[in-house]
Amino acid sequence: KSREWSISSEIIQSPMEVQAAWLRAFFDDEAHFVPKGGIRVRSVNRPGLEQAAQMLRRFVPCHLTPVVGLYPDHSCYLVVPTSARARFLQLIGSLKMASRDCA
């Protein structure tokens, strides 16, 4: 069901604390934290990533990057740029990164 997941309206319309918790769990599970760089999630579900980006933009800048021709599954990335990494870790946090010194 990788192409079919979505974020429920209850989460999207919930208080910022709930949205941050959802994003933290999502990024801890799916993201690649580039050492001293940006943060990115690759998915074949662009509509789901667009929903995540909609919530994430309330905290930090981000963008979707199509990966045309690079992967046969038409996946794309949700990217938090390097310049927003520290703010992401401050506002969203990461249990995955808590034990690392990559901020």
Quick overview of this protein structure:
With 103 residues, the protein is α+β, with helices and mostly antiparallel strands. It contains four helices and four strands. The protein is globular.
Descriptive report:
The longest helix has 15 residues. The mean pLDDT is 89. The protein has 103 residues and is of the alpha+beta class. Helices cover 36% and strands 17% of the residues. It is globular. A hairpin with a 5-residue loop joins β1 and β2.
Strand order of the largest sheet: 1-2-4-3
Strand-pairing-aware structural class: alpha+beta
Report the principal-axis shape.
globular
Helix content: 25-40%
Oligomer: single chain
Strand content: 15-25%
Number of helices: 4
Largest β-sheet summary = 4 strands, antiparallel
User: Span between N and C termini?
Assistant: 33 Å
By DSSP, the count of extended strands is 4
Tell me the Rg in angstroms: 13 Å
Average pLDDT, rounded to a whole number, is: 89
Write the H/E string, N to C.
HHEEHEEH
- Poorly predicted regions are none
